[in-house]
Amino acid sequence: MIFENAWRSVRRRTGYSLLLVIVFTVITAAVVVSLAIMQAAQTAKASGLANQSVTATISMNRSQIIKDAAGSASSDSSDGDSSNGDSSAREAARTAMNDMQLTLADYETYATAAGSLLTGTYYSQTAELTAVEGQAEPVSSSSSSSDAASSSSSDSSGSDSAQSGQPSDDGQGFGGRGAESPMSSSDFTVVGLSNDEALANLGITVSSGEAVATGTSDTLDAANSDGSYDAMVTDEFAQLNGLSVGDTFVVADSAGTQITFTVVGTYTSTGADSGGSFGPGGFGQSTSDRIIVSMATMSALGLDTDSNDSTQISYTYVLGSGSDYDAFVQACADAGLSDSYQVQSSDVDSYEKSIEPLLNLSKFAKTLLCVVLALGAVMLVAMTLFSIRTRTYEMGVMTAMGMHKRTVAGQMVVETIIVAVLGLLIGTCVGAAASVPVSNKLLASEISSAQSQAQQQQSNFGRQLQGGHAAGAQGASSGTVSSDATASSDASASSGASVPPDDSAADGNRKGGPMGQVTQYMSSVNASVNLTTVGLAALAILALALIAGLVGVIWVLRYEPLQILADRS
Question: Which residue ranges does UniProt annotate as crossing the membrane (predicted)?
């Protein structure tokens, strides 16, 4: 009975009903598009790396260490000279970083704590070697000498300082190396690898000969019959020194002890650290001067971390899935990893950077959703009150004829729900058709904004360094986000999930430094409408209809039938 009367009333009041349908349609379409974008972003963030193996590392949280040291120095010298306080803070930070270097046993403790989250681990140990007069010459020295010959004395001084790798006051030089590093006296870096996975991580491509043996097997400990040790060198190093497979060359360790290496292979590297000199085994030196050996050789030479305090270790954890990353971070914390250390993943960081415009778009969609629902509620309540005021006589007659006021109010609510359902059906179809093109259009706008911001930052950074001249301009352009590269990333997935960019984007993030970093943003997303989206939209629209209907119920119950008829007379 109530439904039949409500349906007749909706049909009788065609103009008002049509207006309500349009309002509900617009609200529904906006809600559907907003929810689709939010769900696509959530899916991309939660499951984008779920089917991909990612790596993670543990490093010192230098900013936290420096902050703690500054706070301690400030309290100790509150009444003294501020310059002395700054010096004390730097010294305290250096001391803390030297004392907090993790050992191989520490890294393996966290690997054990992670348990089944890991599919493997690998590590490298890096020590410093120096050139022997009349023997092998480092590529970096050759390059710096050539550059110095064509530059002014002031430029040469700056280049030599940079080449020598002097540590900065905050102890953050050399891409993660601790303070007080004697890098100014080193010419080569020798890198010992724990297994073939560590070798693969460096992106080694053998040009001639064979890859050096890796690992720590006892069968590898002994030197060759001539007292030399097997090693791989870069093509640049081999060409500069006229070396080929089977030749030997001599270098020296920090104590001056000469070491003879036999070249078993030459290589090129396209790995994570090949794009700059601050990756594993780089430490401020040219990667062309990197000598790769087995971990057994490092141990035999006394250059491993157990024998040499200056040897650095880089330990990598391989996770079976990107979705295990947060669990790994928590496992390390549970195993005792303090806030002075941080767990990082270049794979996760690269992916999160690539979907940053999508996440920003999701925030915008959430704001839009809240605004649409709030304005929709206000508009529907106002329209409901206006409708009731124009139907006071009709309601008075119905109650005077014996219809209970609750029945009249219920009819008003059913009328609103009928109109809301019609608007919901039409709006859902409109939103489903518009969600993908609208979301991709908005995403393109977000990417354009991110590109412009990145270009402006790089431009400003370059001017600060070089005053906008050639060197600075070159550095700025190298860090500019390429619109072509961005456009080439066409990520899509079913059910609103986004596919991460290809490996080249992640490699670009890992290879480049602050001035050379290129981010390949996710340029498209399949923000399609699914049952979850429809269900949430239906709940939101019906909630608005019930709010408007509830206001109408309260208004109707306030009237008295005789008073309404008397006012009409």
Answer: 16-38, 364-388, 408-434, 534-557
